[in-house]
Amino acid sequence: MSSKDWVEKDYYAVLGVEKSASSDEIKKSYRKLARESHPDHNPGDPKAEERFKTVSEAYAVLGDEKKRREYDEMRSLFGSGAFRRSARGGGQPGGMPFDVSDLFGGGATGGADTRFGGGGFTDLFSSIFSGGAGAGGPARPRGPARGRDVETEVALDFDDAVRGVTLPLSLRAPGVCDTCHGNGAKPGTQPVACPVCHGAGVTTRNQGSFSFSEPCRNCQGVGTVVEEKCPECHGTGGVTKTRTLNVRFPAGVADGQRIRLAGRGEPGERGGPAGDLFVQVKVRPDELFGRSGDDLTLTVPITFPEAVLGTDLRVPTLDGTVTLRVPPGTPSGRVLRARGKGVVRKDGRAGDLLVTLDVVVPAKLSDEARAALESFADQTPPAAREHLDARVRRFS
């Protein structure tokens, strides 16, 4: 909602309650009005929809104790005439005309949590009455600014992601100029105080009984200007350079995981700390193994006789082989577990290797194999399907 709404809209009237109404009374009135004007109860009625939005906006303020207190203070101050324009267009005697839109930045809109630049009612007026510096002090130039974070992406082989690996990472990103060491001035010279703000970093203008401060446009709020610019960075203090970092990817790093390298992002301004570097990991799939958390997965085909009679199955792991016992009568899809053969974390914990058995049905048989299978079928009792037979007879 617009910040000016706090002055121009009577949310108590919107909800149909007195200013002294309790929180429960406000909530009760809101629920009643919201229910009556809800779009689901009034399909195709734009007036009801607008009414629902207005009621919700009012409750968003009055339903929150802190916002309600700030709203009441704001309404009280403006209602007293302290900021009203006089009939002749002026403010206080001898002052300049005052427009509420000047106070709210030209009527810029924002959510309930971003009004007044996020500082709330108290911060807004402490800034106005103290020249933009907050309560109790002159305006200050901008201090050191933290550098921006940098993000890049690295593709790892499946085995490297499981075991962990250290890789060189080349980045081409902004860095401090080696010629001027970041101050932007030609070697042998130094930045000088800004002649407009005299090093303050802000300029102040008076408007009637108020003074408003803003960052100096000549020096962009830094407080200094460079008269003789560095020939390498042209006065910016930074250049784009290629740097190589050795990045350690821990054992068990997963696809999509972000590795944070503190202080390895872009350098800060005016002596501020550097940002961070975030490395997004992409893991290439393996031709044999899959992964589920710390467990490795593997699908192994077996023949019908192996499933019926049982067998000892030798399967690969990341660092060797392991033999698993397939018990007689094993159905297709059964999962065997090799404990401790999965991903090993740096703390020593290890996942398992999960082996899924896939019984292979041959597409073609020799005459001898077919005869043997038919003999086997003659001696094998049919599968129990009684629970299906009754339903089948209904459609016969």
Helix content: 25-40%
Terminal CA distance = 68 Å
Quaternary form: single chain
Beta content comes to 15-25%
Structural class: alpha+beta
**CATH domain topology of the largest domain:** Chaperone, DNAj Protein, Chain A
Give the integer mean of the pLDDT values. 79
**Cross-sheet strand order for the largest sheet:** 10-11-15-14
Question: What does the overall shape look like?
Answer: flat
H/E element sequence: HHHHHHHEHEEEEEEEEEEHEEEEHH
Number of helices: 11
Q: What would you give as the CATH superfamily of the largest domain?
A: Heat shock protein DnaJ, cysteine-rich domain
Which residues sit in consecutive blocks of at least 5 with pLDDT less than 50?
80-139
How many domain modules? 3
Number of strands: 15
CATH-level-2 architecture of the largest domain: Ribbon
Radius of gyration: 37 Å
Largest sheet: 4 strands, mixed
Can you walk me through this structure?
With 396 residues, the chain is of the alpha+beta class. The protein has 3 domains: 5-129, DnaJ domain (Helix Hairpins, Orthogonal Bundle), CATH 1.10.287; 150-283, Heat shock protein DnaJ, cysteine-rich domain (Chaperone, DNAj Protein, Chain A, Ribbon), CATH 2.10.230.10; 290-363, Urease metallochaperone UreE, N-terminal domain (HSP40/DNAj peptide-binding domain, Sandwich). It contains 11 helices and 15 strands. The strands form 6 sheets. Strands 10-11-15-14 form a 4-stranded mixed β-sheet. β4 and β5 (210-215) form a beta hairpin. α3 packs antiparallel against α4. Mean pLDDT is 79; it is low at 80-139. CXXCXGXG motif repeats lie at residues 177-184, 194-201, 216-223, 230-237. It comes from Micromonospora sicca. Belongs to the DnaJ family. Keywords: Chaperone, Cytoplasm, DNA replication, Metal-binding, Repeat, Stress response, Zinc, Zinc-finger. It is found in: Cytoplasm.
